[in-house]
């Protein structure tokens, strides 16, 4: 039997008449409405009224209230009618419920004997209806309330809360202690859970149960799957596993041993609409899930929208408190508790208003801080500028003189420009006068010019007509040539036909002679065919030929194999040569990197380059190799470390030559420093410690620095010959400097060793100095890393060695392949000799075979020749006779003759047309020649009349040239003046233009050049006597003045923004604070009353913050469990676990009637309470959650006390889960035994209001 088989504990009775016929609905309009028809968004209608008459007929709120009252009347009447059928009615029959292995159903509740009848419920409903009608009438007579003043769109646009807010009109008086929620006939409000089904979910194989519309107590031993139901509700409604505080992956909720599982939750739909069914299928394999919404595939966003439509918020601890989140609720700070409370209860806009206040508060604080900073800065700048004002005045006086001198210096070239412009005006007037003379002469010659132009046009027309006639003649010429060619072709064809007819007799004679010859040859061949020779025996020769051919094929195969091997070696050689060339190019690039370094060194240190050139030519003079400057020998392994390495090696060390012995050092310095007078850095290493010795003596090793967060030592980031590395170790300490490429260094750990002196991290080179006294406190100096310059062109030594080895390997392989090719070519030559011998043998055998078969071949050839000649004879005999051929030629001659006659006739007509057309062309040509002569005469006459015009034109050209020269001179002076003007500051330039405009407005003559020069001399003399002030002082003064002006403008803008934001903030606060205060007071009142009933004290307060810190506002829960104590803040540490649980559940119950969420849940909240507290909490929970104004509530608990109070509206769900569960369980039988007083299978728990059967 499966260990997780679950069974239901019973089935729930159908609703009683009092529940279905109006008791739950017969109340005031309540705090909220769950139906889609009455769902409201925001609080835009709160406290507002519409225009209408005095009796309220046009008030929408009153109309809705009247409609609802009429509905309640009908329900109450139905309830009263149901009383006649008895208190239980037909609908109270309890069906027998049996649970199979894979199904779980809900437990059964039976009403107590004292339960009110449907008649009592109907009477109560009618009484409440009358009270509501009276209040509604009073509300209508009072008239609609005035709408509150609106604010700007940004403030009014709040989120949709999905809750109908409480009206502030007289209709609010409808709310009584039994504030009913609008429910459907089955007692559920929209969004309530009406069914839960699980399969392969945590401990369950399969279970399905139906909660009640009010309090649902889910009990069962530990480990049976109570919390699994909590998980199923949260995950089934689309929330993530993190909401539960348990597993992170959704796959962890699939039952062990199963690959897939699902949850299916049915939510009550809006009244009159169908329910919403949400199914979540979980796959263990890929930790994925999929959703179904009302049986159709859906996305997580669509599920989220469907759930939010009912205002369900499983993530809010005030509405949904899983077992693992109970302690978290007590640890919530007041600010978060306030936010969660706003989300769960009260006005739907509270959270939105709060968010706006937090944002505006931060903006207001930021603006106030910036305003104060700018005001302080403005005051400081003004004080500093007062000190410099007198120096600035003196500077301005000198500046004024300089400006006047500059103005006069500009006036001088402008005066020259004015003079040049006057000359230009005179030249322009002269040109205009000459142009008028020229136009007068041109007008006088216009009639003659028109005559010549008309004759020219007539000449053009005559030439065009002549061309058209000539084109027609050419066309006729082409037609004539075409027909002449046709006649010639027909003549040629007819001549050929006459020749063929004359040669007919000779061809006939030749034809007969050919027939006779063919017959004679056929007879000869038939005689030969009649004597067939015998078949010769060539089997021995054929056998020898086959053997020879086989031997030749074998030789060819061997030759082909040798040739293929040679070709393969050739391909390999080609690949080796390509590798060699590529390697040489890479080595060249590495050498180029070294060359670029030398070029860089040549620019920075020419002496070092000369020393390198001398060293390369004289390296053989030294005992051991002398190394070139360090910058040429060192290469960086990792390009990221280039700047790090350069920061550890200074320029003097970069240009140092390294000698390995003292003798080499003396020789090098004597030759280059003493003789050649070069300034060099040289180091010698004789007696120096090795790199291994120096690494062994450093304070840290590689593992030590990596534990501190470093990546490596600098020495491990470079490569160089061993002597060069010795120099870097001893001179630069690269073996002791750690490097970190990321932000991973634990500096406190590194400094605690008191031995780390230098390190590189975070883009800087850090040096640490430790005090010699006391605690040897560290002091760190940092220097940012510069961009690398010297080692950017780094030659990779390891790569160079690898490439040289590749070159060596390639050379060896090439030598081997060349040797193999020689051997193969020798083999190939021997095979070719053998092939020649076989070919000679084959040719000899073929000759022997041909001699033996020659007679037979000649006989067979005679047969073939005889067949061919018979065919030829037959073809000659079938040719037509001479008479037939003559008749065919005669017909062709007749046809050709008729075509020739037709062509000659057409040609005659075309020739006649051509003669006529040529005559017309001659006439047109004569007319054109005559007109051309007349045109030439008139044109010559016009030319004689143009002398005066030419003289006038020359005078006009001279005037134009003079004007152009005057314009150039004017432009030159203007450009010079403009260039001088452009050099002036803008303010001086504006002043010059202003003075020029004033002179033009006053119509005063401008100063001449002499006056300007005189004033310029005076101003320059006055300028030499003026005292100077540093321009930097004036610049600082003006800069601060501009800053003061900018700050003043910024302050005005910020003050205006501050007023706007404060106005918005206050408008929102005027809405938010009263609603929040009312909510907190309501919660505190219920919370205090709950604590009073258990002999303790509790209070809920609104914690306010100053300076617009609305994010610091919160809700403080204060509790007192002993008389000797004062009220203390509820925290996660101060109270015991039971006290925290008690405070939490009482706070949540205080919110019950204020919830917007259609259901709430708490899991094992009663754990840790003593019996007295647990019993009191249970009683209060039953009282609060079973009111008609309360929504659906789930309480998860592993146990219950005896003699507890129950209510007919609550439902107890018992989890029977385990491997010893029977296959079928008759819950009806056990219920019958329990109600009949029999013991052994049932236990009862009774209270003052009801009874629950626990199986």
UniProtKB/TrEMBL annotation:
One of its GO terms (cellular component) is Smc5-Smc6 complex. Residues 357-398, 438-521, 545-572, 800-876, 949-976 form a coiled coil. GO terms for molecular function: hydrolase activity; single-stranded DNA binding. InterPro entries: P-loop_NTPase, RecF/RecN/SMC_N. Keywords: Coiled coil, Hydrolase. It comes from the Eukaryota. Residues 1-123, 135-174 are annotated as: Disordered. It holds the Pfam family SMC_N. Residues 193-1197 form the RecF/RecN/SMC N-terminal domain. Residues 1-12, 24-39, 95-109 have a biased composition (Low complexity). GO terms for biological process: double-strand break repair via homologous recombination. Belongs to the SMC family. SMC5 subfamily. This is Structural maintenance of chromosomes protein 5. The lineage of its organism: Eukaryota, Fungi, Dikarya, Basidiomycota, Ustilaginomycotina.
